[in-house]
Amino acid sequence: MGGCTRKAAPAPPAAQVAAPLPAWAWHPLGPLAVVEGEVAEPTHLVLEGRSLRETRFAEPGPVRWEFFRPPEGETAVLRTAEGRELARFRFAREVAQARPPKGRPAPAPKVARQPGASPAVPPNVQRVAPPAPQPEPRALSLARLRSAPVGPLADRRPPAPPTVPAPAPTPIPAATAAATGARARFIEPAPAAAHQAQAWPGMGEALNLTRGPGGRKRLLLSFDGGSNAEVATEILDTLKARGVRTTIFLTGAFIQRFPALVRRMAAEGHELGNHTMNHPHFAPGMKRDPKWTRERVQRELLEADAALVRLLGRPMDPYWRAPYGEHTAEVRRWAEELGYRHVGWSEGADTLDWATPKERRLYRSGDAILQRLRQRLNRDGDGLIVLMHLGSERVEKDRPSAGLGAFMDRASQEGWTFVAVGTFLHDLGKPAWDPQLRLALLQPPGSAAPGR
Questions:
Q1: C-alpha neighbours within 13 Å on the C-beta side of residue 136
Q2: Which candidate in 224, 305, 317, 427 is catalytic?
Q3: Whether 389 is catalytic
Q4: 90-99 pLDDT, tens digit each
Q5: Contact between 355 and 362 (Cβ < 8 Å)
Q6: Distance (Å, rounded) from C-alpha 398 to C-alpha 395?
Q7: Which of 177, 218, 412, 451 is the most buried (most CB within 10 A)?
Q8: What is the pTM of this model?
Q9: Any catalytic annotation for residue 427?
Q10: Active-site residue among 275, 327, 389, 426?
């Protein structure tokens, strides 16, 4: 059964039998989907479909879960972290509305329980199509999520590399500019109280992109740059030789340590996403560490962005990836306030290419990593987001980067193409955001950076 119910106690008096928990259901809220139900004990929940994978920790009692609605007709499974299925949802426009009892005012529309999530719909429920969605509810629902007014829907084309704004009156000292190659006039993150970008339609969605749309045999090879770059040049050479532009997530520490590599990435057209300044643990076990407040999380992101602005004179593209894959919906919303959408990776598509033989449980040889990836393409590779790294402490002959070119060539021969995050978000119909707006959150030189 898809519904979450308590186990019946052995033969208690009728008055003491616990009522079954309400069945899980969903309803649309503007561009969002809202899943509601109840759990009887602390539970880690996973909601997974083709283009989404959301996780959260639920305390006992009612659960209300909001996220950006998947494409029309997509099916998602709600389960516990242990694999027990609670419900299945099909995100279609048609929902059911219950008739109010005679003599009573009509309540707010209710949705039908999803197939497999509850017993049959009672006879007093009539399935009807809701009124056609109007623009006003969309704006109102987004306004409820953020107090700031919602701006108009932005152009949904993949974001082009932003241009450098006109120079500000206060120039960067010549010595600093010569040492860093910087062209920007904004170099330090603004005070935490000012960490609020212009409102935009994606703000408050807590998007967690783990897969792109299917039907086109497309694959995203994404790379994280944390603190090392042993295979970065080899990977960039491989991508350049095949004319592939992808998305690379960089820490501020990587940008400061390897400026020439970062300049090359930008020059060759790769999207540069945010991987925080120092690669911290925001949410071990997918529960936010209380010390990581909104202010501190946003500062980690802005400090990394400021490092790129100092180097290239342009902000990061509007994406980020949480270190260690540890995040919550709350943290993702904080990042969206700054214009960063979270990009994870598909289930089972972490190559673990960083692991060395000393990590016995995680280690696989470079050839084995690519072989598993080839098998995954044949099974369900369409829209896959793969995680790889620019650093590796393996011996050279055991690095998967050595065979990456051959893997890409074979995939191309079989009809696969390689894309970046912006392409997937565009084709999923996600609102775009201009990263130039983030420059307003950075201070001009000479301003004292507030302490952490």
A1: 0
A2: 224
A3: yes
A4: 988 654 333 4
A5: yes
A6: 6
A7: 218
A8: 0.62
A9: no
A10: 389
